[in-house]
Design a protein that fits this description.
Oligomer: single chain
Order of helices and strands: HHEHHEEHEEEEEEEHHEHEHHHHH
Helix content: 40-55%
Radius of gyration: 32 Å
Number of strands: 12
Structural class: alpha+beta
Largest sheet: 12 strands, mixed
Shape: elongated
Length: about 425
């Protein structure tokens, strides 16, 4: 019987190929949606796991996480410097880093941070060392700039009509190890330098603050008329006179400290969030989108199933003489049923297997594009529940293949030969 089925499929290879392609494309659509949604969840969750607590000014928690963790450009309100000073003196804090946004270079975001963040985020440097002066910078693992490269930051981006700062030129001194986060595509610079070139000094004046920083008017080119600060000075204690910051990344000493800090800084003027909790809300939105896409994919699969039913009915009509001849030569009804069912189920099974392969390939391609643009590692892979999906599709295919088999089973030899 198997040899007969294979011979029949070779003889009718054109129609068989069409059936396989229809099933494969319909299956691939659903599989790619499921794999891509799962990969985005895993990738974003792993990226957020690098950060314990984020504190910002009162406003949208979601936007705070998107801007500070995933480096999505958006204007955030500034917190007064006293918040940073209070956190720096808090015994529950292992370390903290203010972050400042707004500049870019060659499509990479330039982020002002403390000296602690680059080393702690990646666990060290793959080459070079951290910045020790305001004119130095550290690049993420995915930034295609060599050590010693010069960086002239641009306020905003080229697309938004940004302008290049002439007050400072950074030199790359180190490269972080890969983190699998958006920060792999970031350029780290001392936040003091960001304050200086944007004129953000104590009370908005060009004066020395308590930490010894020097400020300048943002609209004038001072060509480094202040001495670069050393790494020790960059790590000086933050004071109440420190300029405002949009977000502060905090590493609590214990889990209990993390919850207490979050409670203390959820007071209306500031907001403290665990990135993972905010992502849970985003996942709910992502889940709604997934259901819509899965519904679309299911609709496409339903149309394919209807098309296959039409094709099989026509196909059985064209093969009535062949079926009648087999019956006339003594083939029992159950053998006819098995041959027809085996042929169509084989085509459907091949299509489903091909669909899983195509869906996996499409998800890999989309994840690669997303990772290249965001820096976030998006892992694509099958899970245990995908086996149940495959079995469900195969079960549906078995039922679908039974339709033409039943039609062939019910034909009498005399009617088939007279057709």
């Amino acid at each position: 019987m198997i040899r007969f089925i294979l011979a029949d499929l070779r003889r009718l290879w054109t129609g068989s190929l069409v059936v396989v392609l229809l099933v494969a494309l319909a299956t691939a659509l659903g599989v790619s949606v499921i794999l891509q949604e799962r990969a985005l969840r895993l990738g974003s969750a792993r990226a957020a796991d690098k950060f314990d607590l984020v504190i910002g000014a009162g406003g949208s928690e979601t936007q705070l996480v998107l801007s500070s963790i995933f480096l999505q450009p958006s204007p955030l309100p500034l917190m007064p410097g006293e918040v940073l000073a209070k956190l720096a003196a808090d015994p529950r804090v292992a370390w903290l880093s203010p972050v400042g946004f707004g500049d870019s270079f060659s499509g990479y975001p330039v982020v002002g941070t403390s000296t602690a963040l680059p080393a702690d985020l990646s666990g060290g440097f793959s080459e070079g060392q951290g910045f020790a002066a305001e004119t130095e910078a550290v690049v993420g693992a995915a930034v295609t700039l060599p050590l010693g490269a010069e960086i002239k930051p641009m306020h905003g981006t080229t697309e938004t009509g940004g302008h290049t700062h002439t007050e400072i030129v950074y030199r790359v001194t180190g490269r972080m190890k890969p983190t699998g986060t958006a920060w792999d595509r970031a350029i780290f610079v001392p936040i003091q330098a960001v304050w200086h070139i944007h004129g953000l000094e104590a009370h908005g004046e060009a004066e020395h603050d308590e930490a010894g920083h020097v400020g300048h008017d943002h609209d004038h080119n001072h060509d480094h008329d202040h001495e670069p600060e050393s790494g020790h000075e960059l790590d000086a204690d933050w004071s109440a006179e420190t300029p405002g910051v949009p977000a502060i990344l905090v590493k609590p000493k214990t889990i209990a400290d993390a919850y207490k800090l979050r409670q203390d800084y959820r007071n209306g003027s500031t907001v403290a969030v665990f990135p993972g909790e905010v992502l849970t809300n985003l996942y709910a939105t992502l889940g709604d989108a997934k259901r819509i896409l899965v519904a679309v994919a299911s609709g496409a699969q339903g149309l394919v199933a209807a098309s296959l039913i039409l094709v099989t009915v026509i196909h059985i009509g064209q093969r009535r003489r062949q079926i009648g001849a087999l019956r006339a030569f003594g083939a029992p009804r159950h053998a006819i049923f098995g041959i027809v069912w085996g042929e169509f189920f084989a085509l459907i099974a091949i299509g489903i297997a091909g669909g899983f392969g195509l869906g996996y390939g499409a998800a890999l391609m989309l994840s690669g594009l997303f990772s290249a643009s965001s820096g976030i590692t998006v892992p694509v892979g099958f899970a245990r529940q995908d086996v149940f999906l495959a079995l469900l599709l195969l079960g549906f295919g078995a039922l679908l293949a039974a339709l033409p088999a039943v039609l062939a089973y019910r034909q009498s030899p005399a009617q088939a030969l007279r057709a």
